[in-house]
Every structure is written in structure tokens, then in C-alpha cells.
């Protein structure tokens, strides 16, 4: 464990005509580590910071300062980067960016995958969760019940479902003081492209509204967490995560022109940001009580504020005389936050804890084609000096924002090692192909039922589709289902794909799917089907096709999917 201050950066966005007049000398950067702000009354305030990004900074120059955090994450340290600032100051631009000018989140995912590719001594699984805090309630942005939102440009939309229509998630605190969002979805991704597709859909459901200061103003705090789970051939594992948070902007309602509903949101935003400041003050003054629990935002950010994560705060500033007071407030917060010291720790690499007899191989209906290659996989496992024993990881439905706990193994009824991880890593993890020697339990066909009302597959059973894209999907690559299965099996055995129907990323995903529970597979399948339909409705048949292909992977042996 080592003491480390939160790094605090400032980024000034370029001036826009709508900002009104700007006295450029009201804000100056004598060095890239110091910023001077002149108040309305002419007083000069100097703030030393870790780094100042001027109006001409680029997304890539800002990201250079985030990259070292990713190296720490791959060493097992948790990290948090968050953007703070007045509404319209560029937080979402910095954190998310646009397709043509991507921000920290897409760059971090790309950089993580690039780094992971170099790590050939281990199997690494990357997953993510994405929640928003709106009026002090937590919602899962990946939850399909949020609706598909608007998959176009989120900045100009407010078409997502109302907060009241969505499922609120509970925050829980475990015995070690780690805060957990219960029942949050954590999704494994096998490529930056897959992440981008899922992220764009989820981000489009975030609450956004137009105010006088920002046409696409975020009404919620959005917290994206990337989880990294690494497993070595000796069975040892290490987990870590990085939280990338885009806070809602503090608002001066004299300037925003908010209506009653916007005012309610604004008041919740300002209250949570005020609690954030109080927490920082309490940490800096060694107060006996730090009011993390006073709002959900500070509970979730607890690990980044006086906790064990490496922290980076980017304070965004809007140029314009009308923002002078906000600029001084933001810089005062920045300067206080820079004094917060975290006890940064590295999550231990945990050895495989329990040795159990190999479970009896159960017949699988999940991937019938893969059964044929079971013996060859066992042979390859043995030739690699590995026990042909499966160490499946228990699926988790909740994520811990606090420091990661250690894994402790337990053996389930079928003799499968199921480490219970008091941590955040995904519901689905892989142990690598050579170790995969048993098949998962059979899958129940997903049908129209009370629990699963959204996707009716009965038309598929009758051999006809009510949706044209279903037909296109099933005829993928001109293969029958059996041919596709055989091809898939060959890809898995060879750990490569050649013909372009299933790429190596899909092969990895197949390994992951095997370890999912029936419920998880069903849920992912339904989610992909919904996405497919949403793309179809939006006229994007390429994306729709990909979504339906993804859906199929979760139940490749479902006979009801035979259309011909
Ligand atoms: N560095 C930048 N370069 C170019 N344009 C920027 C930059 N920062 C912000 N902008 C533009 O300024 C506008 C407001 O930015 P953004 O929506 O990111 O603000 P915000 O701080 O997230 O606001 P809110 O808190 O209201 O959501 C957007 O149109 C955005 O594209």
C-alpha cells in the first residue's frame, strides 16, 4: 500500500459564441501545472494542479495522462478517473467524446485491449458495467428495461424512458465497507468494437435534456466500470477495475432557464455535488465522520476519495465571463481534491485455492458440436501439463466499488470449483480453452412466458418468422445450423477462425458463454434480440444482423431456431 494524492487536472474547452463575452486574461496558465483565475472583483487566485490542458488540447493529449492508470490496472490496482465541472464545460466531451473525436472511455477500452493482446502468459477477460445516478437513484444503463433509447446522437435526444419506468438498483455495503450495486449487469466484451456497440446503446439511454447552457445536458452522473480479470495457467487470478465517471454538471439556475422537472434534477445534481465537496473537506480536515453515506454518488466514489484506488480528477472549465464564479468554485474544489490522499493498494494475485476431483462430465445440449472435440481438448490440456479440470467461476450479479476482496473457493454440488469473489469481476469469466473439459448444463429454450414476455420464439418453432431479419440471420453465410455448428467447433478446436463467419473474438466469446448460467444466456440472448430489432427498426441492417448473430451464439442448439 502506498499513499498517493489524487491527480487533479484542469481542461478548458474552446470558447463558443453562445458563451458570450470572454475576458481572456480572466484565466491564464503560467505553466502547465498552475492556473490563475481573476474573480469578478479583480482578485487573482492561483491554483497549483497536476496538469492544465489549454483550449487547444486534444482528446489524445488528454488521454496520454489517463494511460498510466491502465498500466496500474493491469498490475492489479483499482483506478478511478472522473470529470467534474459546471454544466456545458466539456465533461461528456472529455469522458465519452464522439465517434469522430472519441474521449477517454473508448480510448481506454482500445488501449486495454491493445495491452492485453501483449500479455500472452495469461487469459484476460474484460467486462463492464454502466450505471447512472439520477435524482439520487441508481439505474442500470445496460438494463434492457431501460428501453433502447436513441441509438443516434445522444446529445440531441431525450427519448429514453422516464426514470419512474425503470428499475431502481439498491446500493449495499458489505462487511468490509465496500459499496455494491445490487443486480447490476456486467457484460463481458471480446473486442473494442463489441464494447462500442453495447456502450453506444447504453449511453443513448442516459438522461439528457436541453437547457439554456447545454443543448445536450446530462441530467445524471454516469459511471462506467471496466473490470479486468486475469488468470494464469497455474490457476492463479488477479482482478482490478477502472471507474470512468462523467458527473452531471453543477448548475446555476439563473442561467439554465430550467423548468420544474429540470429544477428537480438540478437540485439533486447540486445536492450530490455539494456532498462530494463536503466529503473532500471532511477527508482533508481528518473529520471523525466522512459523510460518504449522505448520497449515492459519494458512496459509489468512496474508493476514489480517500480509498484504495489511484485517482484522477479532470475539472472542466467553460470560458465566458458569465462562468467566472463557477470557474472559481470548480478550481477551489480542484485544489481541495488535490490534497486528498488515497492508500493505493494492489490486489493480490490469488493462487488457486482448492483442488477437487474432476467433475463428472455432463452431457451438454449447449454446444453439441463441441462434445466431439472434448477428448481432443482433454488431450491438449494434458499435453500442456494442465489438469483437465474445470475451474468455473461463479456468476455474480453485483459489483463492488470498494477494494477488491480475495477469492475463496467453495465446491458446489457437481464438484465444480466456484470461487466466491467478494469483488466486482463479471458474472462470466473464462479459464481458457485447454482447461475447458466439461460442458455446461443444458439450456432451456427461451419462449414467451411471464418471466420472459419480450421475445416470442413460437413463430420460429412453427418454421416461419414474423420478422424478416430472423430469416436473414438463420441463413448466415448460407450455412445450415448444423454446418455452422461444425464450423464453430472447428474454430474452437483450432482456436482460430478462417472463413470470416466467426472470428477469433467470437471463439473467445463462445468459451465465455459456456460458463454462463442458463439464466444469463437467456438474458443475453433476449438483450441481443432486442438490440437487433431496434437496429432493424432504425434501418441499420448490418448492425441488426450482427446482433442476431450474437443472439444465436447464446443458444446455438435451440431446435426452435431451425427455420428451414
Ligand atoms: N474540448 C472541446 N473541444 C470542442 N468542443 C467541446 C470541448 N468540450 C466541450 N465541447 C462542446 O461543448 C458542448 C458542451 O460539452 P459537454 O456536453 O461535454 O458538457 P458537459 O460538461 O458534459 O455538460 P453537462 O454537465 O450539461 O452534461 C458540446 O457541444 C461539446 O461538443
In words, what does this structure look like?
The protein has 17 helices and 22 strands. The N and C termini lie far apart (61 Å). With 564 residues, it is an alpha+beta fold. 32% of the residues lie in helices and 19% in strands. The longest helix is centred in the middle third of the chain and has 25 residues, at 260-284. Adenosine-5'-triphosphate is lined by residues 13-14, 85, 87-93, 214, 216-218, 248-249, 316.
Spell out the blueprint of helices and strands.
Elements lengths: L1 E4 L1 E6 L14 E5 L2 E5 L5 E5 L2 E3 L5 H5 L3 H8 L4 E7 L5 H5 L8 H15 L3 E13 L2 E4 L27 E2 L1 E3 L5 E3 L5 E3 L2 H13 L3 E2 L7 E2 L2 E12 L4 E10 L6 H4 L3 H25 L11 H5 L9 E8 L6 H14 L3 E4 L23 H5 L1 H10 L15 E2 L6 E2 L11 E2 L36 H4 L6 H7 L6 H14 L9 H11 L3 H20 L3 H13 L11
Parallel strand pairs: 2-6, 2-18, 7-17, 7-18
Antiparallel strand pairs: 1-19, 3-4, 4-5, 8-9, 8-13, 8-16, 9-10, 11-12, 12-20, 14-15, 16-17, 21-22
Bound molecules: adenosine-5'-triphosphate.
Keywords:
564 residues; alpha+beta; Kinesin; ten-stranded mixed beta sheet; three-stranded antiparallel beta sheet; 17 helices; globular; disordered C terminus; binds adenosine-5'-triphosphate; Kinesin_motor_dom
Provide a compact summary of the structure.
With 564 residues, the protein is an alpha+beta fold. It is 32% helix and 19% strand. Helix 2 (67-74) packs across helix 4, helix 13 packs across helix 17 and helix 16 runs antiparallel to helix 17.
Amino acid at each position: 500500500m502506498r499513499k498517493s494524492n489524487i491527480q487533479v487536472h484542469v481542461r478548458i474547452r474552446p470558447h463558443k459564441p453562445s458563451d458570450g463575452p470572454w475576458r481572456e486574461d480572466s484565466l491564464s496558465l503560467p505553466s502547465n501545472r498552475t492556473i490563475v483565475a481573476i474573480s469578478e472583483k479583480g482578485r487573482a487566485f492561483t491554483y497549483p494542479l497536476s496538469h492544465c490542458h489549454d483550449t487547444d488540447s486534444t482528446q489524445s493529449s488528454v488521454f496520454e495522462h489517463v494511460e498510466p492508470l491502465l498500466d496500474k490496472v493491469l498490475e492489479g490496482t483499482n483506478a478511478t478517473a472522473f470529470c467534474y465541472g459546471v454544466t456545458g464545460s466539456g465533461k461528456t466531451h472529455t469522458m465519452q467524446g464522439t465517434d469522430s473525436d472519441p474521449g477517454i472511455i473508448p480510448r481506454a477500452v482500445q488501449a486495454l485491449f491493445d495491452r492485453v493482446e501483449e500479455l500472452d502468459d495469461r487469459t484476460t477477460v474484460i467486462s463492464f458495467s454502466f450505471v447512472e445516478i439520477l435524482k439520487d437513484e441508481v439505474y442500470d444503463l445496460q438494463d434492457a428495461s431501460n428501453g433502447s433509447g436513441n441509438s443516434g446522437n445522444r446529445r440531441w435526444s431525450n427519448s429514453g424512458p422516464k426514470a419512474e419506468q425503470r428499475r431502481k438498483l439498491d446500493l449495499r455495503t458489505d462487511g468490509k465497507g465496500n459499496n455494491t450495486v445490487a443486480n447490476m449487469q456486467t457484460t463481458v466484451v471480446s473486442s473494442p468494437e463489441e464494447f462500442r456497440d453495447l456502450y453506444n446503446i447504453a449511453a443513448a439511454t442516459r438522461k439528457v435534456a436541453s437547457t439554456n447552457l447545454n443543448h445536450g445536458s446530462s441530467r445524471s452522473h454516469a459511471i462506467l466500470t471496466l473490470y479486468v480479470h486475469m488468470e494464469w495457467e497455474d490457476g492463479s487470478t488477479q482482478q482490478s477495475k477502472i471507474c470512468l465517471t462523467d458527473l452531471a454538471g453543477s448548475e446555476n439556475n439563473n442561467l439554465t432557464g430550467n423548468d420544474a422537472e429540470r429544477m428537480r434534477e438540478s437540485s439533486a445534481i447540486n445536492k450530490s455535488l455539494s456532498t462530494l465537496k463536503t466529503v473532500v473537506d471532511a477527508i482533508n480536515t481528518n473529520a471523525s465522520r466522512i459523510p460518504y453515506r449522505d448520497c449515492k454518488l459519494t458512496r459509489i466514489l468512496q474508493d476514489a476519495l480517500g480509498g484504495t484506488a489511484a485517482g484522477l480528477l479532470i475539472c472542466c472549465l467553460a470560458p465566458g465571463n458569465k462562468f467566472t464564479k463557477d470557474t472559481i468554485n470548480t478550481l477551489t474544489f480542484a485544489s481541495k481534491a488535490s490534497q486528498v490522499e488515497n492508500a493505493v493498494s494492489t490486489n493480490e494475485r490469488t493462487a488457486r485455492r482448492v483442488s477437487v476431483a474432476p467433475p463428472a462430465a455432463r452431457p451438454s445440449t449447449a454446444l453439441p458440436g463441441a462434445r466431439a472435440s472434448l477428448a481432443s481438448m482433454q488431450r491438449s490440456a494434458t499435453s500442456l501439463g494442465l489438469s483437465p479440470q474445470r475451474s468455473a467461476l461463479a456468476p455474480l450479479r453485483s459489483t463492488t466499488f470498494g477494494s477488491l476482496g480475495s477469492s475463496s473457493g467453495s465446491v458446489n454440488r457437481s464438484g465444480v470449483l466456484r470461487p466466491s469473489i467478494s469483488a466486482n469481476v463479471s458474472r462470466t469469466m473464462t479459464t481458457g480453452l485447454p482447461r475447458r473439459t466439461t460442458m455446461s448444463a443444458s439450456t432451456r429454450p427461451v419462449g414467451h412466458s411471464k418471466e420472459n414476455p419480450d421475445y416470442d420464439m413460437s413463430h420460429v418453432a412453427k418454421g416461419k418468422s414474423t420478422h424478416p431479419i430472423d430469416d436473414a440471420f438463420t441463413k448466415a453465410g448460407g450455412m445450415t445450423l448444423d454446418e455452422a455448428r461444425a464450423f464453430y467447433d472447428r474454430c474452437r478446436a483450432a482456436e482460430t477462425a478462417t472463413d470470416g463467419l466467426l472470428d477469433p473474438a467470437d471463439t473467445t466469446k463462445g468459451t465465455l458463454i459456456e460458463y454462463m448460467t442458463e439464466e444469463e444466456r437467456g438474458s443475453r440472448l433476449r438483450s441481443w434480440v432486442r438490440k437487433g430489432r431496434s437496429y432493424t427498426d432504425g434501418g441499420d441492417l448490418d448492425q441488426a444482423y450482427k446482433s442476431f448473430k450474437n443472439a444465436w451464439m447464446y443458444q446455438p442448439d435451440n431446435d426452435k431456431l431451425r427455420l428451414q
